């Protein structure tokens, strides 16, 4: 399963982007949120506790939600 590769990348401090469109019914954002919050890596607790916030385009249009952890 590819989620194990994501854990390896995170542990090596490689930036990872997990993306889902709001019209994607097969790999929807709820599923991505659930598995990304459950990943067993050293930053798990901090990432799970992080809040989502709006992602806005340069013109101020809201384009989605983001959750970030450094």
TrEMBL record:
Name the record gives this protein: Uncharacterized protein
Stored InterPro entries: AB_hydrolase_fold (IPR029058), Peptidase_S10 (IPR001563)
Keyword Hydrolase: yes
GO process annotations (BP): proteolysis
Pfam families: Peptidase_S10 (PF00450)
Sorted UniProt keywords: Carboxypeptidase, Glycoprotein, Hydrolase, Protease
Transmembrane segments annotated in the record for this chain: none
UniProt record similarity statement: Belongs to the peptidase S10 family.
Matches recorded under SUPFAM superfamilies: alpha/beta-Hydrolases
Listed GO MF terms: serine-type carboxypeptidase activity
